[in-house]
Design a protein that fits this description.
By secondary structure, this protein is an alpha+beta fold. The chain is built from twelve helices and 23 strands. Helix 2 crosses helix 4 and helix 6 packs across helix 8.
Length: 486
């Protein structure tokens, strides 16, 4: 499948992307891709470093005539979000991504593509391996675990880089120049609960909610897309009123992905079987009508099974449903300073309640640190309804915009020159690594850009071929025009 991708232009970049996508690289399990990148740098005879946390740095001298230019750091992350459709048989730990060309887009066969941030990584690889592209001295920084904790950025020590400018290649709209982003924090509630035996004639019921659009929990959080955990909880609160007992809940997957699926096991009285079928049919109709614009492919399925052995104690069931119901999800506050920018949000990403233990995982984002912590503590208090042990971990700072930076002016003016239109210079609600990296490199001027990528963090992810070509030309011209040292 990847052969057609290798024939696309610019060939060097697409071939490196295909090579990269043959290497499994889930967040927190990047050992193979780190080895791959170390071998790549060493094969070119370039200075190649792996730091204590696992980031890879490859340094390349300036090409002839560019020695007087300031050094540039090119930065992208090695890990990718692993998501697949329920019907797709795929092992992310052993298989390479199956890519296909679909018109002007490259996508994957039922899984995430890894264009986030594989296109950035492949672009840097193409520059490092080139013999005829003019550029200043380059410091390529490949970080790990960006998607689930910013571990690489947080662990990068000062003194390893000397660049004046950093080009972060992790933005997903080719007409945007990103100069600021939100920070984030993981909010996790865990605990135990008691079960009880059923008295009476019950049958088992499995409800499956699937087909939601999902997406990036930062960039897509304002689009009103359905959250499978919240929608399923609404169904369960109505089922609770009918006397249904919950056996287990399993919804969502990764913190940075809007949850697309949820599966729940219930017990209902055998005499209510027909009524429950009608109830689920009506719930599906209501949800479909509510989400017809944002989630046109959602469905609610029903399957019966023998009577379960144990169910949630009623008090815990009531409190759990109340807790999830009032957990903030989606946009919490919009920026008063930047029109259309989400300032603070939360994604109720994962709900797993089974066999006497429960876990609720959220990712809270904000460009205002005080508001980020305010919301995180509200979530913590809400989970107190079920006596959860709540931890706030992995906090990382936002990136403060510097619109007057020389690199911002250079790239904005260049965009106008090349494309006869203005680039959108803005901040985003995603968690870019620039803010963290800037803590140890405060004098480095940073900017983020990239090609058009849609559906990131979902199996609908795809990257536009013509946009990659536009972005590649823009990147090369930017490197030519980097200011002189001093």
């Amino acid at each position: 499948m990847s052969k057609s991708v290798r024939n696309l232009e610019p060939k060097a970049m697409w071939n490196h992307f295909a090579d990269l996508n043959a290497v499994p690289r889930p967040s927190k399990k990047e050992e193979r891709v780190i080895e791959f990148m170390m071998a790549f740098g060493q094969s070119l005879g370039l200075e190649t470093i792996k730091d204590a946390i696992g980031n890879v740095i490859i340094k390349k001298p300036a090409t002839p005539g560019m020695d007087d230019k300031a050094t540039v750091c090119l930065q992208s992350h090695l890990d990718m979000v692993h998501q697949k459709n329920a019907s797709t048989q795929f092992d992310f730990l052993t298989q390479g991504i199956e890519m296909l060309v679909d018109g002007d887009f490259v996508k994957a066969n039922g899984t995430t593509l890894g264009a986030d941030n594989g296109i950035g990584v492949a672009s840097i690889m193409a520059l490092l391996s080139s013999t005829n592209i003019p550029h200043p001295a380059l410091e390529a920084l490949f970080t790990i675990d960006e998607e689930t904790g910013m571990t690489g950025a947080l662990g990068l020590k000062g003194g390893l880089l000397s660049a004046k400018y950093m080009l972060n290649l992790d933005t997903e709209d080719d007409n945007e120049l990103t100069i600021g982003c939100a920070g984030g924090i993981d909010v996790t509630g865990i605990g135990t609960y008691n079960t009880q035996a059923l008295i009476g004639d019950y049958i088992g019921v499995t409800i499956g909610l699937k087909g939601l659009t999902g997406g990036h929990s930062g960039m897509d959080i304002h689009k009103g897309r359905g959250n499978a955990n919240k929608l399923m909880n609404t169904v369960l609160m109505q089922a609770d009123k009918m006397g249904a007992h919950i056996v287990s809940i399993d919804g969502g997957s990764l913190r940075n992905a809007i949850p697309r699926e949820s599966v729940v096991e219930l017990a209902v009285l055998a005499t209510q079987k027909d009524a429950f079928v009608a109830f689920i049919s009506e719930q599906e109709r209501v949800i479909k009508e509510e989400k017809k614009e944002t989630d046109p492919n959602l469905s609610l399925s029903l399957m019966f099974s023998p009577q379960p052995i144990a169910v949630f104690e009623k008090d815990f069931q009531h409190n759990l449903l109340r807790s999830i119901s009032v957990l903030v999800n989606g946009v919490y506050a919009m920026s008063p300073n930047i029109n259309g920018l989400v300032q603070t949000s939360n994604n109720v990403a994962r709900v797993l309640v089974k066999d006497g233990t429960f876990s609720i995982q959220c990712l809270t984002r904000s460009s205002v640190d005080a508001e980020k912590m305010e919301l995180a503590h509200k979530l913590k208090d809400t989970m107190g309804l079920i006596h959860a042990n709540v931890t706030l971990t992995g906090s990382y700072p936002g990136w403060t915009p510097k619109p007057e930076s020389p690199i911002v002016k250079l790239m904005a003016d260049l965009y106008q020159e090349l494309y006869q239109s203005e680039a959108h210079v803005n901040a985003c609600h995603a968690g870019l690594e620039c803010g963290i990296l800037g803590t140890n490199y405060p004098d480095m001027e940073m900017i983020s850009f990239g090609p058009n990528i849609t559906g990131a963090h979902s199996p609908d992810e795809k990257v536009q071929i013509s946009s990659v070509q536009k972005y590649w030309a823009y990147l090369l011209e930017t490197l030519k025009r980097i200011p002189k040292k001093g």
